[in-house]
Amino acid sequence: MPWTLPSRPSRRSLLAGAAGAAGAALLTGCSDGGGSPDTDTGVPLERRMRETAVRDSTRLLERYDATAAAHPALAARLAPLRSAVAAHAGAFASADAPAGKTPGSAPPSPSPSSAAAGAPVASAEPVPPKPEEALTALADAERSLAEARTVTLAGAPGELARLLASVAACGAVHAYLLTSPQGDKP
User: Fold this and answer.
1) What pLDDT was estimated at residue 182?
2) What is the rounded CA–CA span in Å between residue 72 and residue 2?
3) What gap in Å lies between CA 174 and CA 125, rounded to an integer?
4) Cα 125–147–86 angle (5° rounding)?
5) N or C: at which end does the chain have fewer Cβ atoms within 10 angstroms?
């Protein structure tokens, strides 16, 4: 049987195209020719990208905590995924860790057990009232962040690009696990 092209482009090809377009835009970006982007703000590009990644991971941690607080029965299922997100935040922060902060340490955030115990957790997004909807909302947040990181890695320096790619892949797996019928079993 001869091979035929699919009727729709795959998600992977769309993401690759978006990453390529972002890279092309970065290469041909608008500039007055006066200096590099690093000199405009006084902060190196890699550091700005890492700070953004830490901020994004921290927001995602807050969503995990809010979901666990709103649905205590989900806390055990969310704990390993939340732990991985905390590790991602620590990995992004480790290159710029100030003195006194352990490289790889995650930003402070309530643990799933304290969230499940009813500790107040602030979150920008409200948690849906049904557990299934809450998992879907969390999966959507993971998927959205994974896609954003995939696009961002086109303009990232080598080692940071590899880290962004790994974390984006992990986020896609988290989205799958959050919406799969078995939960934490692929």
Assistant:
1) 61
2) 52
3) 19
4) 60
5) N
CB of 175 closer than 8 Å to CB of 143: yes
Cα(80)–Cα(111) distance, integer angstroms: 11
Whether residue 34 has pLDDT greater than 60: no
User: What single-letter amino acid sits at 97?
Assistant: A
- Structure tokens given for 152: 């961002």
Mean pLDDT, to the nearest integer, of 96-105?
43
Query: Is-contact 66 121, C-beta < 8 A?
Result: yes
Residue 160 in contact with residue 50, Cβ under 8 Å? yes
Q: How many Cα atoms sit within 13 Å of 38 on the Cβ side?
A: 7
* SS3 of the chain: CCCCCCCCCCHHHHHHHHHHHHHHHHHCCCCCCCCCHHHHHCCCHHHHHHHHHHHHHHHHHHHHHHHHHHCHHHHHHHHHHHHHHHHHHHHHHHHHCCCCCCCCCCCCCCCHHHHHCCCCCCCCCCCCCCHHHHHHHHHHHHHHHHHHHHHHHHHCCHHHHHHHHHHHHHHHHHHHHHHCCCCCCC
Q: What is the gyration radius of the CA atoms in the chain, in angstroms?
A: 19
Amino acid 49 reads M
The confidence score (pLDDT) of residue 145 equals: 97
